[in-house]
């Protein structure tokens, strides 16, 4: 594989993983970020996100001089053959993707790009953004390629180095080939296509995953009604390779920095185009309804006669949107906490990933770094993130501190017998067990 000079603009979990992994594949990478404090920390190999393997890769890259960090995106791109835009595209007005960061950087780098450079959109962006970036760059010698990422938070390095596919799309086939060559050492099927197809692939993937989860959570309701077990039903269908077993684990709803934002962005794109996509709407609505149902269940068991949870203390175990991350963005745990709080509940929460970061959630709940303190006098315990630590908890001690007996296992992963021995009643989703 031939070494390329690569610039990566944005060092969030996608940008930093992309930069560090491309350096590990033998390319020369300069990463730029507008936050000077972050750039300083990265130069000392201090990574402030929870991504297994990433600190080591950053350290190796710095040591071998294959990876550098700068605060200035024009400086990063001046020597680059390929420039990756890994910028936030948050949910903007009406659910649409907010492209302000992408557009601002395109403006900043346009005159600095060397002749013949390729600009790659890795950020999740609506169809047509490649053309929009090309128009902003106004550089006929610079091609724009869409190369969406499929990295899961908490597994980003693994997913980058072991991709199940690589998608590159551009109106310029030669530029797409140059981007694909960066990954030549990774054995993965390659989909080379036009920009619109590559951009839509990313939304289609996240929509499909969200749809699977809404399906599983809905199916869980059916299981509860008919006394069936969701784990057995999903195992029963998952063995069919046309369905697949992955992404069918019921939970407190799907969240995180990507699935909610991308499904809403796709919906907004459809609405703007006058296309009705009932399946997409139902996928989003099912998630909201599922969480409402779980809150109802907690209220039905812990509320006073008036249905209010006023003054009822509840212990929340896990706030991160999934295990392996401290990320709270669009966390289902917080969505459920908000609804419980609106009904007057007093919430005490523990999450192993937040003991160090200690985010300020004081308007919603009291965060403790002791699971037993969170359980003190609580009417029930809600397990909202599937942290393996919770399997090892001293459940006898938790039982001694709880007022009530119910543990709502909204991740369906606790050991029923263990809780039973502690005198607790485990209630899972979609299962009598
Ligand atoms: C997601 C996609 O999985 C990645 O492929 C994609 O690249 C990424 O978004 C992105 O667009 O950048 P991520 O946001 O890290 O990755 O989160 P997931 O691991 O997909 O989990 C999403 C939500 O679904 C979480 O709340 C998780 O707890 C929930 N989930 C997942 C379930 O409830 N059940 C499952 O079986 C799987």
TrEMBL record:
Keywords noted in UniProt: NAD, Oxidoreductase
Domain (UDP-glucose/GDP-mannose dehydrogenase C-terminal) ranges: 315-416
Superkingdom per UniProt: Bacteria
Entries under PANTHER family matching the protein: UDP-GLUCOSE 6-DEHYDROGENASE TUAD (PTHR43750)
Catalytic reaction list: UDP-alpha-D-glucose + 2 NAD(+) + H2O = UDP-alpha-D-glucuronate + 2 NADH + 3 H(+)
EC number: 1.1.1.22
Pathway(s): Nucleotide-sugar biosynthesis; UDP-alpha-D-glucuronate biosynthesis; UDP-alpha-D-glucuronate from UDP-alpha-D-glucose: step 1/1
Coiled-coil zones: none
NCBIfam families cross-referenced by the UniProt entry: NDP-sugDHase (TIGR03026)
Protein's name according to its UniProt entry: UDP-glucose 6-dehydrogenase
Pfam families: UDPG_MGDP_dh, UDPG_MGDP_dh_C, UDPG_MGDP_dh_N
UniProt source species: Streptomyces olivaceiscleroticus
Oxidoreductase among keywords: yes
Sequence similarity: Belongs to the UDP-glucose/GDP-mannose dehydrogenase family.
